[in-house]
Design a protein that fits this description.
The protein is α/β, with parallel strands linked by helices. The protein is 45% helix and 19% strand. The protein is built from five helices and five strands; from the N terminus they run E-E-E-H-E-H-E-H-H-H. A five-stranded mixed β-sheet has the order 3-2-1-4-5, with helices on both faces. Strand 4, helix 2 and strand 5 form a beta-alpha-beta unit. Helix 3 packs across helix 5. It is globular and about 40 Å long.
Length: 175
């Protein structure tokens, strides 16, 4: 069994059925990805699966979407799950980074992507292995495809690499 890279960045994006996740070892290499579903006791099942994922991958950083803002459109259950995931990651000694949708949008605006569908398409262009997983654009009367959580997680990691590098450069310039 091969060793995991020591610098994995894991993003988790909960949705109504479970969560999508992506682990990158660099901005250009996706190490692993997947979706986990929960039918009952969704939050406890998701936390258990995230714990197993952390044990298996041993990431350095975990990335989440901001969930506490007043304008965040999240179900209360998912907000509670995001809080628990954040605490769980911190308890496991992970660096936990949280980005808003505005941070993600600003990251992808540089490539002309404005909507969630356009951001997913930009992710598929960047991560070739995701291209065939890209769902069709959602019609307003359809529920969001569960595969979108995979693309949202990948967009969070790419945002982390962009904004995290900017923050690191700013810190270096100040010293």
């Amino acid at each position: 069994m091969s060793a995991h890279p020591s610098n994995l960045t894991l993003a988790v994006h909960p949705d109504r059925h479970g969560f999508g996740w992506v682990a990158f070892s660099s901005p250009f290499y996706v190490y692993d990805w997947g979706r986990s579903e929960a039918r009952r006791n969704k939050n406890s099942v998701c936390l258990s699966k995230i714990g197993a994922l952390i044990d298996r991958l041993s990431p350095h950083t975990m990335v989440l979407e901001a969930h506490e803002r007043p304008d965040a459109i999240r179900a209360d259950r998912i907000t509670r799950l995001c809080r628990a995931i954040k605490a769980f990651g911190a308890d496991r000694g992970l660096e936990v980074a949280v980005y808003t949708r505005a941070d993600v949008a600003a990251t992808f605006l540089t490539v002309g992507a404005r909507t969630r569908d356009e951001i997913a398409e930009a992710v598929a262009r960047h991560v070739d292995t995701f291209h065939h997983r890209l769902p069709k654009r959602r019609k307003p009367w359809h529920a969001e495809d569960t595969r979108m959580s995979l693309f949202s997680a990948a967009a969070l990691v790419l945002t982390h690499y962009r904004l995290g590098a900017s923050t690191l450069l700013d810190d270096l310039q100040q010293t």
